[in-house]
Amino acid sequence: MASIIRIKRSSGTDKPASLNWGEMAYVTGIGSYGGINQYKDRIYIGDDGNNVHSIGGQFYTSMMEHAAGSVAGVQNTRNSDGGIVAVMDNQRKVDQWNVDNLRLDLNTISSTNVDGDVIFDTNGNGHVNVVDDTFLSFGTDKDAKIEYDENGDDSVKVTGASWEFDTSVKVTGKGKFGCVGISSNVIETEAGCGDLLFIDPYPDGLSNEGTVVIKGSLQVDGTTTSVNSTTSTLNDPILHLGDLTSERTVMQPVVAGISTITLDSVIGINTGDVVGSSSALSASGVATVTSYDESKRIITVDQTIGAPGITTTTQLTITHAYDTNTDRGISFGYNTSSGAGNNKLGFFGYIDQTNPNSSATSRAWTYIPDASTANALVTGTRGFLDIKGIYYQTGDYNTHGVVYFDEDGLQTSTNAVASPVNTSKQILTAITKNTLSLSGSITVTAGDVIRQDSTAAYGVVEAGGTGGLISLIGVEGTFDTTNNLRREGNNGAVENLSVTASAVNVIYTNKPSWTSTLDGGTFWVKLCNNQIMEVTLTLMF
């Protein structure tokens, strides 16, 4: 008969108080870790000091009563606390791993607490590293990606989605946005992207709508400035043309000990011009241009550059000290008819040169409606001036003189009456002209005087003939359509015309006119006996 080996056993809630060395005991019942049942369902053994140690039992083996590699969904009904032990399969895997609030399941690391964060935190200077040519993707469809493209162009690439920042972004190196590069305080186009840079404030893109606001002063260093707007406004009370100073940008570092400076442009710079605005220049920060190279955009100054040199993007002030002998003013384009062949260029402004189309001296104000320009010099026939009146500068005219043109075409005036100058063999007079539409037909001769009863108006017949319309010059008084008209011939005879004017038209009033014949004028003459008499004179030259 088989032998039965028994060990100490108990159905109580506590483990044995002591066991002999090698003596074993068993406590039955479903156990748990902690509480009154924490010693049940275990096997114990005593050591050489009669101390009791747990060495096994179903409390422990029940934790492993599941398929190797399975953790997810496993339940331990033997122990009241439901604990299990992860048993790896033959590939050293389990199907799920949980640590505190983190879960590793398949390819997913997730938090198990609601709204819990997943934090990657290295110890010291360690890195959270994504290896070369590996995507860090976002979204269920993984359509947004970050990759360090080591095998490509050795750059970190973001694809699939745009980036949005709700705070400022600091880029310490050069930032590239499409064909636009931003570095330090420079915005520029990238190599291979052409030489056009657009600033477009309108969402539709490259339209002519929207407004660009520039705070502060604006410096344009190009050779041509084009404004394609239909309306331009300036707050400046005086528009200035032809600056005597300009700002130029240093394009390459200038080391101490040399005399050459590379600029963004040297057009308009001449020898003798003064360069300033840099502490590296002696003579109180200025130097003089001794030569320049337009193709290389290099100027040479009359001194060597001192320490610490001049850095790139430094703005130098060029004070122009050379007479370019060029004109100054405003040119404008217009069309005289349809077709490009009728395009014209007009100009008004200061002419520095003596023009062959005029006797005017240099530096004269000029208007040319059909002009030609070359090298900032304007040529062409002068145009007309249409104004209401003109004043001479005080002191440049003679009181009570008559305006006339000298042999060079210069408008001037005669001297005062006390020192007369003979300008012609004619008399300058002011004439009023009327036309009278008559109620009947009459015959008149040039030089006849037509007088009107009651009004005392009179005038000289301009041209003879027969009809119902006569023209009168030298009109004095006001004709009406009521009173009778009379004709005074050259022989002094007075004829009653027995007609009235049906209409009176004033052609002009007091129009200046040169004449060699003065007819019909009424003058008051002071005789030797101090008597005053009225006379009518006809003067012939």
Specify the structural class.
mainly beta
Biggest sheet architecture: 7 strands, antiparallel
Backbone CA Rg: 56 Å
* Low-pLDDT stretches: 519-526
Topology, number of strands: 35
Please tell me about this protein's structure:
The protein has 541 residues and is mainly β. The longest helix has 4 residues. A seven-stranded antiparallel sheet has the order 32-31-28-29-30-27-33, with no helix packed on it. It has a six-stranded antiparallel sheet with strand order 14-19-16-17-18-15. The protein is elongated. β3 and β4 form a beta hairpin. The protein is built from two helices and 35 strands.
Summarize the structure.
Among the domains are: 49 residues, no CATH class; 31 residues, no CATH class; 52 residues, no CATH class; 72 residues. It contains two helices and 35 strands. The chain starts with 7 loop residues before the first strand and ends with a strand.
